[in-house]
Amino acid sequence: MRRTLLSLLIALSVSGAALADDDISKVNGSATVEAGQHAGDVHSVNGSVRIGDRAVVQKASTVNGAVELGESATATVLKTVNGAVTLHEQAKVSDEVETVNGKVRLDRGADIKGHLSNVNGEISLDQAHVGGGIETVNADVTIGEGSKVEGGLLVKKPSMSWFNNNDRKPKIVIGPHAVVQGSLTFERDVDLYVSDSATVGKIEGATAKKFSGSAP
């Protein structure tokens, strides 16, 4: 009896470990991983994706909806087409973060090892880190106080499909004690503000306006 019970417990344990890393996929509705849980790829078509605090997943993605990575949670890739992406405090992404139409926010201590990009929306970092550069077309970008970006910053020239947004200049702010390593390249007109305590690489295509204090 004891051997039978022990065997059952071991089997349930192994089964639970396997299920913990299963993929989660939905067509309509939110896909959620609870705090502290593990999963593989987490995907929705029409709905948000929420990864709880301290959870661990591979790719978290959706087409229409937001992607949210909780405090101290980790993922390999975060992607959406139409929706915001949020990394809460100490959240970590080992590869890339990408959205087309949506705001990207990195809270204090958030870390993206790879590339960060969007087309439309905003990008903001609060004492956060991006290791593979930032790329956008129309977004306002705020690299907040104490943040660090390696791999530079690129604001691309809009294609004809984005002509409705061409007249608005993106606002780019490099905050106090922020660091941008690599070139800051601007293929279109922008309003660029750089704190007098920030450290930046070569600036191409724009003239920086210096400011003191917490914001321009």
Shape: globular
Structural class of the helices, strands and pairings? mainly beta
- What is the chain-wise order of helices and strands? HEEEEEEEEEEEEEEEEEEEEEEEEEEE
Tally of separate helices: 1
The description of the largest β-sheet is: 10 strands, parallel
Strand order of the largest sheet: 1-3-5-8-11-14-17-20-23-26
Question: What is the average of the pLDDT values?
Answer: 90
Low-confidence stretches: 1-19
Q: What is the rounded distance between the termini? A: 73 Å
Over the alpha carbons, how many angstroms does the gyration radius reach?
20 Å
Tally of DSSP β-strands: 27
In terms of DSSP E residues, the strand content is 35-45%
Considering DSSP H and I runs of 4 or more, what fraction of the residues is helical? under 10%
Word description of this protein:
The protein is 9% helix and 42% strand. By secondary structure, it is mainly beta. A ten-stranded parallel β-sheet has the order 1-3-5-8-11-14-17-20-23-26, with no helix packed on it. Strands 2-4-6-9-12-15-18-21-24-27 form a ten-stranded parallel β-sheet, with no helix packed on it. The chain has a seven-stranded parallel β-sheet with strand order 7-10-13-16-19-22-25, with no helix packed on it. It is globular. It starts with a helix and ends in a 5-residue tail after the last strand.
